[in-house]
Model the fold of this input.
Amino acid sequence: MRKSAMIITSVILLVLLTATVSALGIRPAKAQIDFEPLLEKRMSLIIVNTEKQAMAVSLEAQGALKDYIFFEKNSLTFTPDEQFKETYYTIKMPSELPPGDNTGEIYITQSLQGEQYGENVLSANLRLLYKLTVTTPAPKEGVFAQIRFEETSTGIGIVTQVDNYGLTGINEAKSTISIFDGEAKLKELETNKASIGAQSQGELRTAIGKEELAIGEYRVLSSVNYDNQILEVVKRLLVGVPKLKLKPKELLLSSNDINEFETEVTNEWNKQIENAFLTLVLRADGKEVGSMKSPTFTVPGSNKQIIKAFLDATNLGPGTYEAILTAHYSDTSSQETFKLKLSEDAKKESQSLKLVYILLGTLMFVILVMFIILIVLLLRKRE
Done:
């Protein structure tokens, strides 16, 4: 019995699908135009309701040209009395397209209401394809280049990909790679030589060691020399990520008081970091007991500066706290964890520590002078 029901359902579905195969038509089925830079061309489609049904139709662009196809209406509705409708789209061409045939597809999808058979509802969608081809003629001479970077175990590979769209081959191509930090040229590298056939692709390669570039942002210029002609292409190279290094200047502050807190912030990135700010969180027994936030600031590339903020410790007694200092910038952060001591006599203790450092420094200086005098005396005795 169950097998018979399945057979009947399948037959009904087959009949339904067969009935809908011819329910939708499109004229024309394809179109072809020649490429013209920045051309905007309005084109029409006629969608035919061959079975005179009530239905909805949607239009969607796909393929290599999908970003350049714009519909005046991307959906249509039909009544049984409407045999066809004309709709329009515009192809807005870019400044350039690769030589050859560039294809875009427009899918016209029809949604049909399901037919009910007892407790089962059967429905079907019909989808037609309209193909648009934009043909770009191959130039007698046409060379394009682009740079890509490849990370290796020893450094960074710099690859200049050369596409020869012309009808004649390139006897010899070679590139000079220049790496700039701002306007200053840091490195100049040479690639291999290569011959590139007509309508073919070649690669010009070189590499730079990891230790040769500090973290930062660089400009890479590839000057491709081919058959006594030069083509230049530029790309940005990022080594590492922007980084701020933090060094708290004070590890001893006053309890039950508002303290000025200074942090030395070093920008290890070679470009300016803007809109940064600091937060400081104090913890005791695993719980947050105090916090601070600095104003926003800017640190020039490869530079350092002192950032001042105020820590409210009016409700914090003497003791040693876990301090978490964080710099927030460029959608990332840097963090430094240390011990911060709060004391009732912080100023006296700080002055005492400074006095100790001064005495130690003086003692080291005296020892160094005496050592130099001793060496001089020994040298004179030998003479």
Notes: Residues 222 and 233 are 5 Å apart (CA to CA). The chain has a mean pLDDT of 86. Residues 350-383 form one domain. The two ends are 123 Å apart (CA to CA).
